[in-house]
Amino acid sequence: MSSNTPQQPTRDLRFFLTVPHACSYLEKREATTLFLDPQESPGQGVYDALALLGFRRSGRHLYRPHCDACNACVSVRIPVADFTPSRSQRKLLRRNADLTLHERPARFDAEHYGLYSRYIRERHADGDMYPPSHEQYRTFLTLDHPYARLLEFRLEGRLVAVAAIDLLGHGISAIYTFFDPDPAFERRSLGSYAVLSLVELARRSELPHVYLGYWIRECRKMNYKRSFQPLEYLHGRHWRREIPL
């Protein structure tokens, strides 16, 4: 059982609430989002502190759910030192041993966008990010800041996946991963392999956690997160390994 408290106070920062809007994950639910004032320019210490409180980044915005009648969104993270790949995950690592990884700044790249556009059109045509556009991509996944990085996964030079990540003082935050929707790559489970790669990157970088964003018990698309064990859940201001009620 582990817990963390922010290392830098955030009480002097300004936050805003959005108006209620349709929930992106659960049907017939309304959501409200708490976000840091976009005019703020938080340093690394503030971002680290907010991440420990369940905040995520989307483009230039730091946010977290703040719904009065619902607490379904639970922040989750992998404790790197205690993680051991399962049998199926070890097979996945072997299956993707021929991929190469390259780390780059989170800047716009036409090749990346082409893969992202295919991924959204073929895998998420019913989601909020459809249809994809250059502006949407830039706003969501590019940021000129040293902590924002893009990991390329290539097979014999061919780009097959990209993981957008943030390098925090206490871990790696997985922002978003998109990959080649070609059925030929289905057995590679590139999304899960990307998470395993982040665990290894965190281990090499001596960072204790990999943050996977939010887990929702009722959302089937998020079930994969629970395959990474042990998993820590944010209860209030404390991280624990018990699933919240």
TrEMBL record:
Domain N-end aminoacyl transferase N-terminal, first and last residues per copy: 21-91
Keyword list, A-Z: Acyltransferase, Cytoplasm, Transferase
Record-linked Pfam families: ATE_C (PF04377), ATE_N (PF04376)
Tree of life domain: Bacteria
EC identifiers of the protein: 2.3.2.29
Predominant location category: cytoplasm
Keyword set includes DNA-binding: no
Residue ranges of domain N-end rule aminoacyl transferase C-terminal in the record: 111-234
InterPro entries on file: Acyl_CoA_acyltransferase, Asp_Glu_LeuTrfase, N-end_Aminoacyl_Trfase, N-end_Aminoacyl_Trfase_C, N-end_Aminoacyl_Trfase_N
Catalysed reaction equations from the record: N-terminal L-glutamyl-[protein] + L-leucyl-tRNA(Leu) = N-terminal L-leucyl-L-glutamyl-[protein] + tRNA(Leu) + H(+); N-terminal L-aspartyl-[protein] + L-leucyl-tRNA(Leu) = N-terminal L-leucyl-L-aspartyl-[protein] + tRNA(Leu) + H(+)
GO biological process: ubiquitin-dependent protein catabolic process via the N-end rule pathway
GO cellular component terms attached to this protein's record: cytoplasm
Class of enzymatic activity (EC top level): transferase
GO MF annotation: an example: leucyl-tRNA--protein transferase activity
Compartment annotation: Cytoplasm
PANTHER family given in the database record: ARGININE-TRNA-PROTEIN TRANSFERASE 1, ARGINYL-TRNA--PROTEIN TRANSFERASE 1
Function: Functions in the N-end rule pathway of protein degradation where it conjugates Leu from its aminoacyl-tRNA to the N-termini of proteins containing an N-terminal aspartate or glutamate.
Family, per entry: Belongs to the R-transferase family. Bpt subfamily.
Protein name per its UniProtKB record: Aspartate/glutamate leucyltransferase
